[in-house]
Input
Amino acid sequence: MEKTRRIEILLVEDDQGDVDLTAEALEGSKLPLSLNVVRDGFEAMEYLHRRGRFAKAPKPDIILLDLNMPRKDGRQVLREIREDPDLAPIPVIVLTASAADEDILRSYELRCNCYLTKPVKLAEFMKVVRVVGDFWATVVKLPGRDE
Output
């Protein structure tokens, strides 16, 4: 049987609780996923451009992006990703606490692939993350992957 390459997920999230829950939910999926975490938008861009301590970081297949973060928010990160020809093809899933119409509209204008509001209840949050992981790992054909 042919070995499947792990799907590299970059989680851009400043809340440690949400990082822990996301990691737990993805581990529970039993899919070949690798979760890499950065804490704000500035670190996200350093990671994506493989600068500094991220020089050997793997290129993500999927980005899970929070909107409200210190130093550089998710909207700025999404804009920069979409303006960079090397990064633009990477699917970006906004996963945030904001349910504001303005944030939803702006994220789609900046070409996010989908917008998800973080559920407040633990079980619902875990389910959403698992469904996202399963969908992007098993249903979607990701750019730059030839299996």
